[in-house]
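Final report, closing paragraph on structural work. Over the funding period we assembled a curated collection of sequence-structure pairs, and we close with a single example.
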Amino acid sequence: MTTSPLDSPTDLPLASLHEELNASWMVHGGVRVPARYGSSSDREDQALNLGTGLIDLSFRDHLDLHGEDRLRFLNGQMTCDVKDLQPGQGVYGFFATAKGRIEADGIVFALEDRLRLELPPGTGALIRQRLEKYIIADRVEIHDGPKDAYLLLAGPGAQSCLTKASLQLPKDPWNHLEAELLGNSIRIVHQEGLGIQAFALWSSPSAAEAIVSHWIGEAEPSAPQPVGFEALNRVRIEAGIPWFGADFGPENLPQETGLDQAINFTKGCYLGQEIIARLHYRGQISRGLRRLKIEAEAPPAAGTELFLDGKKVGSVTSAASSSRQGGIVGLGIVQRKAFEGGTQLQVGSLGTAEILPPAASPPSNNPDVG
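Its predicted structure, as stored:
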């Protein structure tokens, strides 16, 4: 996962609290985020795999769309079906260029009086500029989202952690509802895109600080544990879930990501639809994302070339050591000739990789990017 080398990264609203929790920092998408807490992330991996991890997702960009034409307008800009969203629902999709290439991915949340668009960090200004370019006679206004805190509870204990607090939870992916936690107003989102159970909590920074301090202060073994970006990144690689900015980007067509559930093939016109639909009905892509089981001394860097019978067929996009899967796992974009599970590849001069079969069901995408 690459990070942004900006000279003046911005801080999270809860930066001082993370300092108190002994965070080690990294810059991601122009934002300073906790990489881990303490010298090792083993405890954080355990929290995500066996308990409950608490992750600060406030580095994501947010835009709010107001106006009575907001649903119809955004529906013409994304690959997913936005027009039928009801308050409390959400959907994941892509922004594509006129040539069908991915400009960003995003999650649309329908609130009573607006649409909130959650985007990869560093893409908010670009997408706002794109949207404003296409507003002609549409009754739509676009504003930067509020500087709220966005916390994530993830792991097998996430649901019980919230139900123990007598909270009702949204059942369907990306659905959300208002609630109260420890006397603070929050919005709970049924989060997808990690391969593990997860719920996001939106709130004011002051409310988030009170909630985090309460949970971290609990002596119970089941209490949520702070988890940094490295463990979050690792768990989604283990699940085979690609992220914008790491595994796919402006050079890719949506179908190359394997995230076809982000594309509605029966909706009306949207930017890039002609090319995306043509590829869909043709039924073949020349390259695509595949899961990798890698045999090497260390995870290969993004961009490491992959070879089949001495010929380059792709490159690694993400890789991480996984104690849960007993070795190095990764993702890579490869040519069609290397799609089949079990195909053996050479990883540069570092080792070998085996193409793994697709996940049993297509994963929804991330809350993030890089």
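The CA atoms of residues 24 and 39 lie 8 Å apart. The longest strand covers residues 311-322. We thank the funder for supporting this effort.
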